[in-house]
Amino acid sequence: MILLKKVIIIIFISIFGLLLISSAVLYLLASNGPNMINDALTEEVNIILPKSEEFKVTSTAKGDNQIKLSRLNNDVFTYYLDNSNCFDPNARGNDKTLQLIRIKEDGTYSIFDSIPVWMHGNVLTDETRNLIYYTTYEEVLVEGVYYSSVKIYTYHIEGDVISLINTHTLADDQNIVEESNPRVGAHIDALGNLAIAFGNYHGVMFVHVYDASNDLWIKHEIIHYLDTYEGDSNLYPYVRLNGINQIRVVASRDTSKDEYGQSYPNPARDYTRYFQYNGTEWTHFILSDLRDESTPDNLLSATPGELYFDSDFNTHVIVNENHHFTYYIIDSESNVTIKELPKLTMETLITFIRIVQINNQLYYVVSGNGLHGFSISGYLEIYDYETNKLLYRNNSVCKTPYIFISNRNDSDYFDIMVI
Question: Which of 38, 142, 303, 357 has the most beta carbons within 10 angstroms of its beta carbon?
Answer without folding.
Answer: 303
